[in-house]
Protein backbone atom coordinates (compact mmCIF):
# COMPACT_ATOMS: atom_id res chain seq x y z
CA UNK A 1 0.00 0.00 0.00
CA UNK A 2 1.17 3.48 -0.87
CA UNK A 3 2.27 5.87 1.85
CA UNK A 4 -0.49 8.32 2.77
CA UNK A 5 0.11 11.76 4.17
CA UNK A 6 -1.71 13.03 7.22
CA UNK A 7 -3.83 15.19 4.91
CA UNK A 8 -4.78 12.16 2.79
CA UNK A 9 -5.83 10.29 5.93
CA UNK A 10 -7.89 13.26 7.18
CA UNK A 11 -9.66 13.40 3.82
CA UNK A 12 -10.32 9.66 3.90
CA UNK A 13 -11.84 9.88 7.37
CA UNK A 14 -13.98 12.86 6.40
CA UNK A 15 -15.22 11.12 3.27
CA UNK A 16 -16.15 8.11 5.39
CA UNK A 17 -18.06 10.33 7.84
CA UNK A 18 -19.86 12.29 5.11
CA UNK A 19 -23.30 10.90 5.90
CA UNK A 20 -26.20 13.02 7.19
CA UNK A 21 -27.12 10.37 9.76
CA UNK A 22 -23.56 10.00 10.99
CA UNK A 23 -21.37 6.91 11.07
CA UNK A 24 -19.86 4.71 13.74
CA UNK A 25 -16.20 4.30 14.46
CA UNK A 26 -16.07 0.82 12.91
CA UNK A 27 -17.43 2.11 9.61
CA UNK A 28 -14.84 4.88 9.51
CA UNK A 29 -12.10 2.43 10.45
CA UNK A 30 -12.90 0.04 7.60
CA UNK A 31 -13.55 2.68 4.96
CA UNK A 32 -10.35 4.55 5.84
CA UNK A 33 -8.17 1.44 6.12
CA UNK A 34 -6.91 2.38 9.59
CA UNK A 35 -6.43 0.40 12.76
CA UNK A 36 -8.51 1.30 15.80
CA UNK A 37 -5.44 2.79 17.49
CA UNK A 38 -4.56 4.96 14.48
CA UNK A 39 -8.13 6.11 14.01
CA UNK A 40 -8.52 7.15 17.64
CA UNK A 41 -5.46 9.41 17.33
CA UNK A 42 -6.77 11.05 14.14
CA UNK A 43 -10.32 11.40 15.45
CA UNK A 44 -9.02 13.17 18.53
CA UNK A 45 -7.20 15.73 16.38
CA UNK A 46 -10.17 16.17 14.06
CA UNK A 47 -12.66 16.64 16.90
CA UNK A 48 -10.33 19.14 18.54
CA UNK A 49 -10.11 21.15 15.31
CA UNK A 50 -13.83 21.07 14.55
CA UNK A 51 -13.70 18.91 11.42
CA UNK A 52 -15.97 16.30 13.00
CA UNK A 53 -18.47 16.21 15.83
CA UNK A 54 -19.40 13.24 17.98
CA UNK A 55 -23.06 12.69 18.82
CA UNK A 56 -22.49 11.39 22.35
CA UNK A 57 -25.89 9.73 22.84
CA UNK A 58 -25.69 7.78 19.56
CA UNK A 59 -21.88 7.38 19.33
CA UNK A 60 -21.95 8.60 15.74
CA UNK A 61 -19.45 10.88 14.03
CA UNK A 62 -20.70 13.61 11.71
CA UNK A 63 -18.79 15.90 9.41
CA UNK A 64 -19.02 19.64 10.12
CA UNK A 65 -19.14 22.58 7.71
CA UNK A 66 -15.43 23.04 8.36
CA UNK A 67 -14.87 19.38 7.48
CA UNK A 68 -16.84 19.77 4.25
CA UNK A 69 -14.75 22.82 3.39
CA UNK A 70 -11.57 20.81 4.02
CA UNK A 71 -12.79 18.09 1.63
CA UNK A 72 -13.61 20.67 -1.05
CA UNK A 73 -10.17 22.30 -0.77
CA UNK A 74 -8.48 18.90 -0.73
CA UNK A 75 -10.32 17.96 -3.91
CA UNK A 76 -9.38 21.25 -5.59
CA UNK A 77 -5.72 20.80 -4.72
CA UNK A 78 -5.70 17.24 -6.05
CA UNK A 79 -7.26 18.43 -9.31
CA UNK A 80 -4.54 21.06 -9.66
CA UNK A 81 -1.82 18.50 -9.01
CA UNK A 82 -3.29 16.02 -11.50
CA UNK A 83 -3.59 18.75 -14.15
CA UNK A 84 0.01 19.77 -13.58
CA UNK A 85 1.19 16.18 -14.08
CA UNK A 86 -0.43 16.09 -17.51
CA UNK A 87 1.50 19.18 -18.63
CA UNK A 88 4.84 18.01 -17.31
CA UNK A 89 4.86 14.58 -18.95
Question: Can you tag this structure with a few keywords?
Answer:
4 helices; two-stranded antiparallel sheet; 63% helix; 2 strands; mainly alpha; Arc Repressor Mutant, subunit A; 89 residues
What is the architecture at the second tier of CATH?
Orthogonal Bundle
Largest sheet: 2 strands, antiparallel
Computed CA radius of gyration, to the nearest angstrom: 14 Å
Mean pLDDT, as a whole number? 91
Helix content, binned percent: 55-70%
Please state how the strands of the largest beta sheet are arranged side by side.
Answer: 1-2
Structural class: mainly alpha
Q: Strand-residue fraction?
A: 5-15%
The string of secondary-structure elements, in order, is HHHEEH
CATH topology: Arc Repressor Mutant, subunit A
Oligomeric state of this protein = single chain
- What's the total count of β strands? 2
CATH superfamily: Winged helix-like DNA-binding domain superfamily/Winged helix DNA-binding domain
Number of helices: 4
Which descriptor suits the 3D outline? Answer: globular
Number of domains as seen in the coordinates:
1
Low-confidence stretches: none
CATH class: Mainly Alpha
Termini separation comes to 24 Å
Describe this structure in words.
The protein has a two-stranded antiparallel ribbon with strand order 1-2. The mean pLDDT is 91. It starts with 5 loop residues before the first helix and ends with a helix. With 89 residues, it is mainly α. It is globular and about 45 Å long. It has helices at 6-16, 25-32, 36-48, 65-88, and strands spanning 52-55, 60-63.
Amino acid sequence: MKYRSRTDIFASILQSANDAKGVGITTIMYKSFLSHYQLKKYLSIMLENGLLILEQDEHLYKITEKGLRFLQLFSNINELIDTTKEYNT
